[in-house]
Design goal:
Number of strands: 14
CATH topology of the largest domain: Alkaline Phosphatase, subunit A
Shape: globular
Largest sheet: 8 strands, mixed
Order of helices and strands: EHHEHHEHEEHEEEHEHEHEHEEEHH
Helix content: 25-40%
Strand order of the largest sheet: 10-9-11-1-12-13-2-14
CATH superfamily of the largest domain: Alkaline Phosphatase, subunit A
């Protein structure tokens, strides 16, 4: 193999993991729920790769002869968010239990935050679009940044551009991430510049995630030592704190990230193109529309694949949109793999860890084996 193109669709869940009840996520299925809420989905490109073989989804057919190989990835890391999901996809498992902030931040931690940001609003577990809608007007009048949590390792901060300029918000969030790792266990602080007015608040397309580095080596470290070209598109560069990438390209939207990938297929001849696309951070109708648009665009990328290419579509966790707060949910994610010289229609089964994908990418690109994960590259070989 010469090149791997990896599309990581944030929140692309397809059914609860066996331990989902431990996360209050029993019965979740992001894709199936989204399809039901939307009256069915129309995803011919993903369908052709074998999506219909992974579970009943309204509008998705089971193809007798898929053009791709298909399976599901489970997660073994303790926790459920983009940081842990992407790290495990890359071969880094985290078994340390996160601090529980499901009731908001304690007074001492809140005091630490306000030493950095000044007075804040929120301090609750929340879904981003909802919290800025509820607190936006008060935020403008008080000039206090809006702060909320995912209940565990991630702290979100939003500020209107008339309250804090985007570069100032970024600086404060970077400072907060450095200050709050220990003993508080805040591994990621996300900056959300916002704009608009009452009734029409929205985020600006310049979000940044300030994260700690993965606590163990990843496929990026291994492939870097193998002198591969490693391009991160979208927020994935931030999720690894930039470590291991040859180049990172933050994007204003998932469509911009997709266009970056589409445009570089003729410019990057080898290595890994790793793109994070957030399709499920919206109301069900908006999420379904984004998924349909991704499916409509995918064939153009598939047409450009050449011998020696391996393309993967997967996710980092679920985001069952009927759940309170719409936080990440503990689900399997689809594993869809294709390439011009690869096998077709192979059922890759249920992989016990998403780290199997990282191990497969490393083997495909001739890197040293990772300590965790079982490669399925042999199953992809035609003939």
């Amino acid at each position: 193999m010469n090149r791997v193109i990896l599309f990581m669709l944030g929140g692309f869940g397809i059914g609860a993991l066996p331990d989902a009840d431990d996360y209050a996520d029993a019965g979740t299925n992001t894709l199936a729920h989204l399809a039901e809420a939307s009256g069915g989905v129309n995803l011919p490109a993903l369908e052709s790769l074998g999506l219909g073989h992974l579970g009943a989804v309204r509008g998705v057919r089971v193809m007798a002869q898929p053009s791709g190989c298909f399976g599901r990835l489970a997660f073994r890391s303790t926790g459920c968010d983009s940081l842990l999901g992407n790290w495990e996809l890359a071969g880094c498992l985290v078994t340390e239990k996160a601090t529980d902030y499901s009731s908001g931040y304690p007074e001492k931690l809140q005091s630490e935050l306000e030493q950095i940001f000044g007075k804040t609003l929120g301090n609750q577990v929340a879904f981003g679009p909802s919290v800025i809608r509820d607190l936006g007007k008060q935020h403008l009048s008080s000039k206090a940044p809006i702060l909320w949590s995912d209940g565990h390792r991630t702290c979100h901060v939003a500020a209107h551009d008339t309250v804090l300029a985007a570069d100032q918000l970024m600086r404060l969030c970077r400072e907060a991430r450095r200050a709050l790792k220990d003993p508080w266990g805040i591994w990621r602080v996300v900056a959300h510049p916002m704009t608009g007015q009452p009734g029409s608040w929205h985020y600006k397309p310049s979000r940044r995630d300030f994260s700690i580095e993965p606590p163990a080596q990843t496929m990026l470290d291994v492939l870097g030592r193998a002198n591969q070209i490693l391009i991160g598109v979208g927020k994935v560069g931030d999720l690894f704190s930039g470590r291991g990438f040859t180049k990172t390209l933050p994007s204003a939207s998932w469509t911009a990230a997709f266009e970056e990938v589409d445009g570089m297929l003729n410019r990057v001849p080898r290595g890994l193109i790793y793109a994070g696309l957030d399709l499920f951070n919206d109301e069900p109708a908006g999420a379904a529309g984004s998924l349909h648009e991704f499916d409509r665009r995918l064939p153009h990328v598939l047409e450009q694949l050449r011998a020696g290419d391996l393309l993967v579509v997967t996710g980092d966790h679920g985001r069952h949109l009927a759940k309170k707060h719409r936080l990440p949910t503990r689900e399997y994610v689809p594993l869809l793999v294709t390439g011009p010289k690869l096998a077709q229609g192979v059922n890759l089964g249920v992989r016990s860890s998403a780290a199997d994908l990282g191990q497969t990418v490393v083997e495909a690109l001739l890197g040293e084996p990772l300590p965790v994960g079982e490669s399925f590259l042999d199953a992809l070989q035609a003939g």
